[in-house]
Amino acid sequence: MKPYIQEGGVFGKLRDKIKFREVEVQHGLGNLVLPSGADFCPNTAFIKSEPHAAKIRPRKHKDKP
Fold first, then answer.
1. pLDDT at residue 21, rounded to an integer
2. Alpha-carbon distance 27 to 44, whole Å?
3. pTM above 0.70, yes or no
4. Is the dihedral of CA 14, 17, 20, 22 positive or negative?
5. CA distance to 16, 29, 41, 43, 46, per residue, from 35 (Å)
6. Edge-to-edge, what's the strand order for the sheet holding 32-33?
7. What are the sequence ranges of the domains in the chain?
8. Burial code of 23-35, b = ≥16 C-beta within 10 A, e = fewer?
9. Chain centre distance of CA 18
10. pLDDT tens, N- to C-terminus, the chain (65 residues)
11. C-alpha to C-alpha distances, 51 to 34, 39, 42, nearest whole angstrom
12. DSSP string, the chain
C-alpha cells in the first residue's frame, strides 16, 4: 500500500494510522475497503508488492559448548 499512500489522493488519507486501522477486507472478494467506500483490488496490491526482508536474529543458546 505504501506507494499508493504516498501518492496521496483517496489512499493518502491512510497515512493517518487511525484511518488505516479502519480499512476492512470485503468478505468473499478480498478487496480492501476504505471508510470512504473506495476499494482496492488485492490483485493490484500483489502485482505491485515487493518482498519484505525479515529481520533474522541469531539464536541465543544457554548451553554453549
1. 92
2. 17
3. no
4. negative
5. 12, 17, 15, 20, 21
6. 24-25, 32-33, 39-40
7. 2-47
8. beeeeeeebbbbe
9. 14
10. 778 888 888 888 888 989 889 999 998 888 889 888 888 888 887 787 777 776 666 666 665 55
11. 24, 23, 16
12. -HHHHHH-HHHHGGGSHHHHHT-EEPTTT--EE-TTS-EE-HHHHHHT-----PPPPPPPPSS--
CB 31 within 8 A of CB 37: no
Grid coordinates of 13: 488519507
User: What single letter denotes the amino acid at residue 14?
Assistant: L
